[in-house]
Amino acid sequence: MTVDGTRLTKRYVSWDRDEPLREWTALRLVHRHEPDLAPEPLDADLTADPPTVTMSLLPGEPLSGGLGTAQSLALGAALTRLWGIPHDELAEAWPWSDDLGFARRLTEGPRPDNVIAAAAYDAAVSWWDGPDPELLSRPPAATVIGHRDPNLPNYLWDGNRVRIVDFEDAAVSDRAMELAVLSEHLSLRTTDTEAFCARFDVDGNRLRAGRRLWAMFWLRLVLTEGRSAHRNPPGTVKAQAIRLLDLLRA
C-alpha cells in the first residue's frame, strides 16, 4: 500500500479469487449507502499487473487486544450498518455458497502429530457425521454483505466510532456466519465474543456450527508453516486445538 496525501493505493499480491474486484465492488456499494463507514473508492485499474484500487485514507487507529465497552459497541454498530446495505451487485457476481470447504482444509489434511491437535482433528472428522454440515449447507433466510476478514486492525477507532477497511474477501454471507468468523479470529482471543454475539438476534445453532467450522480452519492454519507462522506465540497450536475441542463438545 502507498499513501499520497489523502489517497491510499492498494496493490494486490494475488488476485485469483477476484480480490481487487471484490474490494472495488464492496467499496462502491458501501459508499453508495453508508458513505462514512468505509473508504471512498476513488480509482481502480483491475486489469493491471498487479491490479490496483485507490481509496480515501480514513482517520482512526486499528483496534487491538481486548476491546473496551465503547469500542465493542461501536464495532457492533459498524457491522450492523454494513449488514443493512443492499448487496444485489455483489450477489450477482459471487452468489452465496457454503463455507464447508474451510472446514475440509483441516479434515482433508494430514492428521497432526501433536497429541492434543490430533484429538481435535479426530473430533473434527466425526463432526461431519453430525447435524452441523447439513445446517450450514442450507442457504440462510437472509443474506448480508460479509466483510469476511475480521482481523481487528481492519477496524479503525477514532475515539467515537469504528470504520471498516479491507474488503478484498467480501462475499455474500449471513449475520450468524459473520459473527462466527469474527468470534474465531485469532486477533479477538482476549475479547469477550460471547457477550458481543449475544447482542445480535441470530440463529444460535447456526452461530455455534459456524464457530466450529472456523475453529477448524484456524487449527489448520496454525498447524501449517506459512509466512505468518512467526506471528503465532508459543502454545498457539495447543490453545487452538483445545478451543476446537471445547466448541465441538458444547
From TrEMBL:
Pfam family, one: APH
Highest taxon listed in the record's lineage: Bacteria
Domain named Aminoglycoside phosphotransferase: residues: 17-204
Transmembrane regions listed in the UniProt entry: none
InterPro entries named in the record: Aminoglycoside_PTrfase, Kinase-like_dom_sf
Protein name: Aminoglycoside phosphotransferase domain-containing protein
Organism phylogeny: Bacteria, Bacillati, Actinomycetota, Actinomycetes, Micromonosporales
